[in-house]
TrEMBL record:
Keywords: Hydrolase. It comes from Streptomyces coeruleorubidus. This is DUF402 domain-containing protein. The keyword Membrane does not apply. Residues 79-196 form the DUF402 domain. It comes from the Bacteria. Gene3D superfamilies: FomD-like (2.40.380.10). It holds the Pfam family DUF402. GO terms for molecular function: hydrolase activity.
């Protein structure tokens, strides 16, 4: 582990403020309809520049995730009460294969790549979300429920439309915000249909540097940055 088991505090440096490959940062999500962070994942920077932030979430990484107050996993709760029952957070580990996450500055979605064991490429996953806000320790966003799966043969389909509708019913998203999310989804679909970046860039053939350690989750994973910039 870097620096005795803590996430390596690599400040964004220079006028551009980009992280060097191999830097360890946090990729976090605030809770919907609240101000607290409920998801935090330590990741390793693959690339960071004016065009793209790419990070690697390694198998076995310790993360924070939301659960119901009684410890029930969120996905096991019936949809009708999933977003209204009290919640807390707990430490867990990212099991299975790792995930490569790609985000372009200012774009209201990120693209995740998944593999089967043995590095057999599975799919791209378009996660609709607030554009990432950068701070010295990582990036923050808010998830927008609606997602898109993109398959190796370039076919695609919407995901979690039921969760998106339930979030609206439960007041976590008003009509104006929901239309912004739908518009973002339509824009993402146009990129998919045109087979634009990042789908066309061959990231499915990427592999992590074997010298990278698995980052650790810091105790202050939910600290609020003093200065946040997009």
């Amino acid at each position: 582990m870097a620096d005795g088991g803590a996430v390596r505090r690599v400040e964004t440096g220079g006028a551009a403020g980009f992280w060097e490959p191999g830097s360890e940062i946090l990729w976090r999500y605030r809770e919907n309809g609240g101000a607290r962070f409920h998801i935090a994942r330590p990741v390793t920077v693959v690339r960071d520049d004016a065009e793209l932030l790419a990070v690697w979430l390694a198998p076995g990484t310790e993360c924070m995730r939301p659960v119901l107050a009684d410890g029930t996993p969120v996905h096991l709760e019936p949809l009708e009460s999933r977003y209204t029952k009290p919640r807390t957070v707990q430490r867990d580990r990212w099991f299975g294969t790792g995930v490569l996450k790609l985000a372009r500055p200012g774009e209201p979605w990120s693209v995740w790549l998944f593999w089967e064991p043995g590095w057999r490429f599975k799919n791209w996953y378009v996660n609709l979300e607030e554009p990432l806000a950068r701070w010295e320790g990582g990036v923050d966003s808010v998830d927008h429920f609606l997602d898109i799966s993109v398959h190796p043969d370039r076919t695609w389909h919407w995901r979690d439309e039921d969760e998106f509708a339930q979030a609206m019913r439960d007041g976590l998203m008003d009509d104006q915000q929901a239309e912004k999310v739908r518009a973002a989804g339509r824009a993402a679909v146009e990129v998919i249909r045109a087979w634009g970046p990042p789908f066309s860039e061959g990231w499915q053939h990427w592999r992590p540097d074997p010298s990278w350690a698995v980052p650790s989750l810091p105790e202050d994973w939910d600290r609020t940055p003093a200065h946040v910039s997009s």
